[in-house]
Specification:
8 helices, about 210 residues, alpha+beta, two-stranded antiparallel ribbon, Aminopeptidase
């Protein structure tokens, strides 16, 4: 897990100030290259979700093709039990990116941002989506921790210390506060619980 505390900063501006130079560069890039992109929370559309999931599977992601561990029926289930939240990016009225998360009573499991990399990688569209999700989460009373995924799930402090051992998800640490990375022992000893498995209805953090 790679966790972002979204219940401590009172404003998005406070969050940006908490980031390292790398994280602040991400935000500057987003502001300069995505001025004409609009971010919105959107209702679940099954056909649209399936189309974006298929797009994501049929393009290279860091040099390889990735496949979903679940199908559209799992997304249907998330919607049915009330934990699914969807967000989209629009350019000139066209939906160019889709992102879905699972909100389990404040613990938010985040899935990949889905978009056409041949068209929008150069403007940093995924960074735009991640930054805006953080902003939304800080302003939301129902979100406490965003989990970007990757690394170990059994101990948050150790996950921070071992972050360089997991290069495929190292880019995600740019969204984590500088103090968290510099002082892991001051962070809560959190563990991710998946009582029904990775794709179960119930997921939550407990403090060790």
């Amino acid at each position: 897990m790679v966790l972002i505390d979204v219940h401590t900063p009172k404003t998005f501006e406070e969050y940006i100030k908490s980031l390292s130079k790398r994280g602040k560069r991400i935000w500057r890039l987003v502001k300069s290259r995505c001025k004409d992109i609009e971010y919105k929370k959107v209702p679940y559309n099954r056909e649209e979700m399936a189309r974006f999931m298929d797009l994501w599977e049929h393009q290279l992601i860091r040099g390889e093709y990735r496949h979903w561990a679940f199908g559209i029926d799992y997304i249907d289930k998330l919607e049915m039990i009330g934990v699914l939240e969807c967000f989209a990016a629009f350019k000139n009225g066209e939906k160019i990116a889709l992102h879905f998360v699972e909100n389990h009573n404040g613990y938010v499991e985040c899935h990949p941002v889905m978009y056409d990399k041949t068209k929008y990688s150069s403007i940093g569209l995924s960074k735009f989506m991640w930054m805006n999700l953080v902003k939304y989460a800080i302003e939301s009373p129902t979100m406490k921790w965003l989990d970007l995924g990757g690394g170990r799930d059994d101990n948050w402090q150790e996950a921070i210390k071992e972050r360089k051992q997991h290069p495929t998800c190292f880019y995600k640490w740019g969204y984590v506060a500088k103090e968290v990375k510099e002082c892991p022992d001051k962070q809560p000893k959190l563990r991710l619980c998946l009582p029904q498995g990775k794709c179960g209805d119930s997921k939550f953090l407990i403090e060790l």
